[in-house]
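Entry 14. Ran structure prediction on the chain below.
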Amino acid sequence: MTVCYDDKQRRGVVYARTLPSDWSRASESVVFSRCPPLTSDDLQTHRSDNPVYRVCIFHPSPPLPANIPAVFPRARVMAAYKLVLIRHGESCWNQENRFCGWFDADLSETGAEEAKRGGQALKDAGYEFDICYTSVLKRAIRTLWLVLDSIDQMWLPVHRTWRLNERHYGGLTGLNKAETAAKHGEAQVKIWRRSYDTPPPPMDPEHDFYSAISKDRRYGDLTEDQLPSCESLKDTIARALPFWNEEIVPQIKEGKRVLIAAHGNSLRGIVKHLEGMSEEAIMELNLPTGIPILYELDKNLKPVKPMQFLGDEETVRKAMEAVAAQGKAKK
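Output, structure tokens:
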């Protein structure tokens, strides 16, 4: 673990692969944020090819060592815009550890509570929005409803699009990790889950959920090329970014305060684009469910500081622990 200071912002910053066990004893306000791999220019003593967590501990006004360089030069740039993203709360199929993708699973009770807590965090911070975007899957739509209800802004315009849907898991849809490994082998499943551009096997017409997805009338206007039978993360990002560039970006540049409630992989696409993350780095990024993510952007829509997870300390801590546990097989 390495500690350094930003003398402009007067904050201590801890870079760590895991959360410090004694973090909760700190009397300062604690904010967690997620960052891509650091460069030698950022921090001379830190070396890592893997993403790490950044824990910002804000001090009232501490004396700062004169010889410690600032590590967030872009934080001195004034933010022109703010953007809030939120991954939907836990779904019933998340709870059962099943590949969900385009199957329209609803929120679990836990997921609904996560969404409400996310809304409360936004309410406590005084956030107001002008326009909202979500997918056409009910777990994201309901998350947005619960958030808007919590902040008493249910009247806001909401735009739904299939382009913000979760990654289509094809033939894996409905299987849990144990079933998938038994059917296809653990080595192959690891490739499907961790490769950036290798899709899972396609969903054929005999699949249990083929009709429920491919024949659903919400996708009736999609062309044959647009309606996937499976997707890699690369495919998911490729169909999400046109909507981002053509629909969302103009709203942000007009000064609209935008809220996006979507899915882990479609939101990864936006994050990758905003931060210029590598394929390797984006594969390691797991966004926690139900936690609002704040981006402060300059006039060119580049982040002026790292993404921030909004919420009380205990909620953020649990979300970080859940992120660390993601990908572990459940029997």
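The chain has ten helices and ten strands. Will compare against last week's run tomorrow.
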